[in-house]
């Protein structure tokens, strides 16, 4: 027996090697399935089964016992509330992702030039740590119409009053039958004609003594002054005696004048003179010609204070909620775009600067085109997120304008559980929402796979 024969007899069969490999692969697949099985079980229970159940439920009536075919899908496009939800969802999809992507890009570029860039990014990203429930409550308070509660209206009212001023006596009014008649515009004028040389007393009520200006003085002395032959004197006073007593229409002791009240002398329907009352409520018109006049207190004296903007009214409720959404997600867009910006080739930017390009040209012709893949991913991700928005709309929009702010997600909940109790129609809305989200999800997945290659 030769040595080669011994080696051949000692070596294993040739087929043993591939068999061992196949067994190892089979064991690997089994181990992988065992590890993946819990995730697949959860995915099936929490995603696949609800989707299939909703699709099936959408073909039944509200009770779930009678098959109605596509009636629920037809009802969606006949229901005005659902059409409004589709319109609002379209506004969200068009406006919010575009604004967020633009803001994120601008902030990411600007942050690179800030010394405390990390702290600035942290500050902008911090709202992401706030739940939508908490953010909704915050902005519900911030948008409150009452300037004493809503911080936005407090700022708006402060700016408005700084430029246009405000009425000191919004609650003041004239006593009936005391010589003053209210005009259609809210002004007051004397019933009887007034001639030069006369003294006019204009008594008002409806002002609390505690609301009088601090510099207000008693009006009795001013009412006792005589008028020259070419002037009209008068006094505007609070026709109320603290502690009781006094006679209506008469300036009694202790009754206060109303300062800073605008008064006009009117002739032939036109104001020929005007004055502002002093601390004791006195005023006078000098240089008046012969004839009769009417003394008028313009409506601006009694204008109600400016209450600000109705942020949560039917007109502005959707833009207001989008503003809250921007506050939460701007940091997310900025951080993602900033990461893409940090990966840009700096030699291309430096070469452009050496060729004489300014910063705007570099941003428009180099930075944005190179960031296009990142911007697309951010935009599509936000589109998917916007289509599912529910918490902010449901919490921020008050009950009376809930239908004006509704989107598909909130409409689906309202129809199914919020009083409609029609889970067939609600399931159809859910299927519609799924069909709208799927193309964006597929596009995003393909972008990720293409970028990995």
TrEMBL record:
It holds the Pfam family BPD_transp_1. InterPro entries: MetI-like, MetI-like_sf, UgpAE/MalFG_permease. It is found in: Cell membrane. Its main location: membrane. The keyword Zinc-finger does not apply. Residues 86-444 form the ABC transmembrane type-1 domain. It comes from the Bacteria. This is ABC transporter permease subunit. It comes from Streptomyces actuosus.
């Amino acid at each position: 027996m030769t040595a080669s024969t011994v080696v051949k007899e000692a070596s294993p069969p040739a087929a043993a090697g591939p068999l061992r490999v196949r067994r190892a692969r089979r064991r690997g697949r089994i181990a992988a399935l065992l590890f993946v099985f819990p995730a697949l079980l959860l995915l099936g229970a929490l995603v696949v089964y609800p989707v299939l159940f909703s699709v099936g439920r959408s073909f039944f009536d509200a009770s779930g016992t009678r098959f109605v075919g596509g009636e629920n899908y037809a009802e969606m496009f006949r229901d005005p509330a659902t059409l409004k939800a589709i319109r609002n969802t379209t506004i969200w999809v068009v406006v919010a992702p575009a604004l967020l992507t633009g803001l994120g890009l601008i902030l990411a570029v600007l942050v690179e030039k800030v010394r405390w860039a990390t702290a600035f990014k942290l500050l902008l990203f911090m709202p992401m740590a706030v739940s939508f429930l908490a953010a909704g409550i915050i902005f519900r308070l911030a948008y409150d119409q009452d300037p004493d509660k809503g911080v936005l209206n407090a700022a708006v009212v402060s700016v408005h009053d700084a430029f246009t001023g405000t009425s000191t006596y919004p609650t003041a009014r004239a006593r009936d039958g005391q010589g003053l008649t209210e005009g259609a515009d809210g002004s007051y004028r004397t019933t009887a004609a007034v001639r030069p040389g006369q003294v006019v007393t204009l008594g008002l009520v409806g002002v609390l003594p505690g609301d009088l200006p601090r510099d207000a003085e008693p009006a009795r002395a001013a009412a006792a002054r005589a008028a020259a032959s070419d002037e009209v004197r008068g006094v505007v006073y609070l026709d109320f005696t603290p502690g009781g007593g006094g006679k209506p229409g008469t300036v009694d002791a202790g009754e206060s004048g109303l300062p800073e009240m605008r008064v006009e002398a009117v002739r032939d329907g036109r104001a020929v003179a005007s004055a502002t009352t002093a601390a004791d409520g006195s005023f006078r018109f000098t240089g008046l010609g012969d004839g009769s006049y009417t003394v008028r207190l313009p409506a601006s004296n009694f204008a109600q204070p400016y209450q600000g903007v109705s942020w949560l009214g039917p007109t502005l409720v959707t833009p207001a909620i989008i503003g809250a959404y921007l506050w939460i997600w701007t940091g997310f867009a900025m951080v993602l775009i900033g990461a893409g910006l940090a990966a840009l080739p700096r030699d291309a930017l430096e070469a452009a600067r050496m060729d004489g390009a300014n910063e705007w040209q570099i941003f428009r012709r180099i930075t944005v085109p190179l960031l296009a893949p990142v911007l697309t991913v951010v935009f599509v991700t936000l589109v998917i997120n916007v289509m599912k928005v529910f918490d902010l709309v449901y919490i921020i929009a008050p009950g009376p304008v809930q239908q004006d702010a509704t989107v598909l997600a909130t409409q689906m909940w309202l129809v199914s559980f919020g009083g409609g109790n029609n889970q067939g129609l609600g399931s159809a809305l859910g299927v519609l929402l799924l069909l709208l989200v799927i193309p964006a999800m597929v596009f995003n997945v393909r972008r990720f796979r293409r970028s990995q290659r």
